[in-house]
Predict the structure.
Amino acid sequence: MLENFLDNIKAFVEGFKNQSTSAIELQLHEMENSFALVCFGSLMGMPSPPNYLGMALLPYIEQEIKVMIFKSERLDDRLAEFFDLSDI
Amino acid sequence: MSSTVLVIIGLVIYVVFYKAYGGFLKNSIVGTSEKEVPSKRLFDNVDYVPANKYVLFGHHFASIAGAAPIIGPAIALAWGWLPAILWVWFGNVFIGAVHDYLSLMSSVRYDGHSVQWVAGKVIKKRTSYIFAWFILFVLILVVAAFGAVLGGIFVKQPAVPTAYFLQIAFALILGYIMYKMKANFGISTIIAIILLATSIIVAKFYPFHASYQTWMIVFLAYIIIAAAIPVNILLQPRDYMNAWLLVFGLAIGGVAVIFAFKPMGIPATTMFSAPIIAGQSTPFWPAIPLIIACGSLSGFHALVASGTTSKQLSSEVEGLFIGYGSMLTEGFLSTLVILSIGIAGMGIVGADKAQTLTANAAAFGNHYIPAMKSAGGPVGIFAKSYATVVNNVLGIPKAFMVILAAMWVASFAMTTLDTTNRLARYTFAEIFEPLKETSKGMYDLFTNKWVASFIPAAIGIGLAWTGEWKVIWPAFGAANQMLASIALMTASAWVMRVQKKPSWPVFIPAMFLWVTVTVAMIWYVIKIIPIFMHKSPVQAYVLGAMMVIMLLLNFILVYDFAKPDKDQSFVEDNA
Amino acid sequence: MKNIIFFLGKGGVGKTTSSVSLSYHLADKGKSVYLASIDPAHNICDIVSEKPFNGVKNIYQNLFAEEVDVEEYLKKFVKNTTRSMKNTYKYLQIINLDSMLDVMKYSPGMEEYAIMYALKDKIENNIDKDYIIIDTPPTGLILKIFALPFTSRMWIEKLILWRKKIINARGAVANINPDAIDKELAIKEEDDKVLKELGLQSSTVEFLVELLQDRNKTKTAIVMNEDELSLNESKRIKEGLDYMNIPLNLIIINKKGMIENKVNIENSFSGIEKAYAPFVKDTSSTEHIAEICKEWAERLIDD
């Protein structure tokens, strides 16, 4: 009973943590997404830095590329994700 | 009847329906799927991350709870507290919570795709596009409605703007401490609460007086500037402070109302057609959903539920708790609003006004709205009543509680003003997509960041300029309910065509809502717009045009719902 | 190092001869000189009558010459990248597709990059010499190579700023909610490999940009003949150098009097010194070669 109660309190605190980072996480993932897009924009015809720069960074930006791919799969359905930001 | 008894009745209804009706929906309509939830099956640690049930509940609730569930019920009291509370309770359990729950679950079954996307799948391609239009109208009208209500309270309670703008300044500081200096979370939290308290206390001594029109100009500038600032600077720290405001407001208010043991001081029912919208006699049916939107049911929730919540749900069983449960919690918030005004509202409008109001039920119905207006509009009457109840029960000084309550609403409403502008910018781009081929110049113009930011903000504030929240608020309600109606139709199309389960628990509310809102909108266009025309012709034309477009889209929508594309495949997405 | 001197110009106008001449001249004066050709089509060895050689060779007194192997730099760079790529895609070896990744070296712009990298490397390695003399590839290529550090610099600056924002946001989130950020991801600027790599890239381009714009160090000379084509190309070089704010010190008119239909260049390149170099038929002896630069050598060097 007490343990259960403590767990709930913990979840409550976690929920608050979430309230203080969710928008930044959203922003972070979009920044990672666009970082990868900028480095490899030439793949889809976007202006991009000299190829060698992208190549030099390639081995280290697995996460960014991953995010770019996840995000690009959902390009036709992005609006609702941002409704979290508004409090109505 | 005692407010305490009503709280208990409300809670009993919620618990019983949550268990019985919610359970029925879960077992018979939603059923189970062999597929794992998207958060696990598509886990990417970016968008798809399973979250703890309570954490997700908190997040979902904080995203759907705002200023609207407080404002609507305060206005609806003109019909008496009983119709208002019944609409909140039954609207909640039969429509609102069903809508939220099923939007969440259909999204879960479609890999976390939004209800807008699912609508394009289960109804017709263009339904998704119509959805975008409704979203844009809601986003514009919410600025108008909140702008008008906020302007009223800022003028009547000059401490509130001080408190809010102090909060903004403090949010910037908090953001710096939390995200730049990366201070310990506990310390940041203590700082956040101290800053919040400081802003309320300081505001009491330094009210800021300005005219209504001045505030409208300030709002317009604020919207455009705030919407252009990176989220980590203002939006995120302010969100965090708001979360505490919500918790304090709800907890203090909840305790106070439960232990108030006060009788309701206002009539249970007044008349069927109380003068509410633009001072015209407004029939309870079909107008009620235009007045009480978010506290009872809100289309916005479908987007929140299917935007992020569905990607974080860690098991299908928890969907009921999060989708259905958090809507009931929001309804509980509206219940508290009704009850606090019910027991304390007459004490704050002034002795002579109270006398007129309480003479008989009809007098209350006739004079409630003007009395509320002089108390500072819906927010004003709520804040003062809330402060009175809290002061009576917990003894916290009334002056501070008025500011706390008003700031709670104001802060959420102001947040909505700028965040919806961000969304509107994007929706603009989506809506003008067809222009891309035919008229490139127009497309570039409308999708320009500043233009797309300015137009919705300017239309919204332009409508609010009249100060006629009694006219604008229902228009926002209508757009929001249209959104709810399209989401409910999507849900019932999903239940019928994909789930192949009995669909009446969704279909009946969907149709009821569609008919009600459509009739209400026609009534509004015929009855209210011409009256508004005498006073503010430009705004009336704009509002009228929006209403007519929504009505047209509305008919296309129901037509599409009845006659979906033959070749539309209703198979669940397995991508 | 006192000076670095670049010889630019259209192919065949006598860039290599001029640079070799100046090198001998300086060596004769007892200076230590490093002479490098970064033209993929080298011909220093022809002029100094040596057999083709690899690496640095001491060809005369304190004169060290090198025909820089651009291909090697290209390979080195591609190898580094492909190594890490191949590490990720190890399984390709199973079906012997790993060599597919070698195709990266044909990516556009790679050659310029390799030469730029080589240039920086060679300059740094020979910074102890009194003079560094560079014989450059034909106009189109050298202008691209010169432009590369300038254009890359902007990208790198922006990418570094962007990257810092990302790391900062990660740090902010991890500070409050550690589980939300993958353990392998850097949350501090000093741990981030991307920033480190960008820093390396940045130091390369900054080094070159600073050097190229340093009027006390860098000297450039356009070598040209008195024909229309050569003149036009020289004008292009000047425009390019002006654009990048690289000083142009001297126009060397080579093979004077040898060209029919010669153009008048007196009115072109106002404000820039011009010098004439005699045509030397016999380049077999060091003295003869050193003769060529007699008139203009002092204008290109600071003692």
